[in-house]
């Protein structure tokens, strides 16, 4: 049944499309832009072409665009989308097992995963229970043609479950305009092997210029942490089919199969005793064996899109599709079960969902302005359960047959058992008025409606029976302005409401019908400026965010128990900047940085796990076939609070710690060579990647208990990756 559900279900709908797709988080790239991988590029010798991150002159909010050349030339091919986003200001991530070799999360301005959108070709996707994301299961770096990090709620047409925290927008890689095959082989530290082969058909004249790209990737690694292996297979297919002169049909599907060892965080005592790379142990009699700490995941994402240009400046687009996630997790092993204190026990957890979506956009564009209206609808079915197991007895359910009958024993060994149904609908309308040639105003309104149905014979946390539902809705206005001071210099300002759909945590109480926790809302105010020349490229912004109904989740890593608290609100504020300066001769210097401040309204305490600053210092070189980059990322200190903390009451603090600042430098050097026309091999490319080039011994404090004892994530020491690719 699972395999059948993973097939791409294509439905031919109305011939819908979009005509004027802008380069933003919500729309695909213009038709003239091909997000394709070019193994040997033309010279990139100006600040405009070498900037690792940059904004747009017509931006309405702070953003950082990262193109395919930066993705291919500055990070390892094993990387995930969180590593790409980490190049931007105010963004942090932790790669615990090596680049892309374990699940990683971004934090944007202090907003954690689940509090911002992640989209692929403008389509939001997320884990249904908490709106978080799984970086190893979706869209490896080699599938991404561009990433845009929007640090704000966007305009009214920005759709998704978590609009207020920003958007990580990935755009898929397009077929190449000429036919060819690009194989890539990479090998490096931790016995990491990546094989990727990509083929493009080129524009096929008999089918009206249709083109197709297909790729397969295999990744295998032992990981930095002991016995924390990862094995992954990924397939990708995208077909562009022009229909007449005004319509384009897009078919896209990708699927991912992965299995990996899953160690937890460690204390300082464990590090001192077992070494910095301690993860799991090769001992079947230990709870830390990979036999009892691993996950298997299957995922897919597919859509069919039609975009059409109509008469009179009208255009229309529709994307209809589905995405799937199946996580089979063996975790939290213990020494001792209900049957025997000597046995090894643990839990088996399933999180499975199939989502169906439709996104529609109608646009009218003329000299006066641009009008957009449309909707996004999604339906998700999400079965979830967790059972206690006794591995010593063959992995059977962990109940005591001497005191519990077989029938009752099934539920007695159940931590939770539920099916969650989520229906989401969002409609929007916005107008961008070109007041003058240099001045534009954008105003709009978005309506969001969320409905959850829960069928839980055993509810999570409470283990009580619960069958119920909840509906939440809100209307979010936005207004923004952009003024072009000169042809290469603009300023902008924005005020917008943000909203986060209620997640399943709201139901983890004895009587959810009496739950008065309200969905999260923000009011965002931002101003900024963008300046661009061939020699110097820079942007700067300031933001202030009023956050209402702030929920806080703290995990006690010793017991794996999560604690929830609600604050009356919080304030976020900060300054952000990024810039690139072309020295000449193919060399450019770049830097970005942020100062981030976040406090609870009532207690005036700093919000935990929010870095007070970030920075990147580096250089880019490209001349004579040689290319190189250096990127040194700084993350400032963060506050850590013990579990049980109540955000509105400073007196509830049991223990406080500071996670110190850290610098982490990555270096890439390479050479590419284009062969003469007519050669069987068109080009060759070799790259050496060195991550943590200065070999810093870093560990990140993630949590502390009431006694102040911390749990750490240890970062890999210096590691190397050599990558060879060609074009045939």
- The overall pLDDT average reads 89
Helical run tally = 6
Low-confidence stretches: 1-34, 38-42
Q: Classify the secondary structure makeup into a structural class.
A: mainly beta
Question: How many strand units?
Answer: 34
Structural domain tally: 1
Please estimate the helix content: under 10%
Task: Please identify, by name, the CATH architecture.
Answer: Beta Barrel
Sheet bearing the most strands, described?
A: 22 strands, antiparallel, barrel
Tell me the CATH topology: Maltoporin, Chain A
Q: In CATH, what is the homologous superfamily?
A: TonB-dependent receptor, beta-barrel domain
The CATH class turns out to be: Mainly Beta
Which strand-content bin applies to the residues? over 45%
Describe the protein in words.
The protein is mainly beta. The chain has a single domain (2-727), classed as TonB-dependent receptor, beta-barrel domain (Maltoporin, Chain A), CATH 2.40.170. It contains 6 helices and 34 strands. Helices cover 5% and strands 54% of the residues. The strands form 5 sheets. It has a 22-stranded antiparallel barrel. Strands 1-6-7-4-5 form a 5-stranded mixed sheet. Strand 11 and strand 12 (247-261) form a beta hairpin. It has helices at 2-5, 47-50, 68-74, 81-85, 268-274, 406-412, and strands at 63-67, 91-93, 106-108, 117-120, 123-124, 144-150, 167-172, 179-188, 192-201, 211-221, 230-243, 247-261, 294-309, 314-335, 344-365, 369-390, 396-397, 414-434, 439-458, 466-486, 489-500, 520-532, 536-556, 561-584, 587-600, 613-623, 626-635, 638-641, 656-659, 662-674, 683-691, 699-704, 710-714, 719-727.
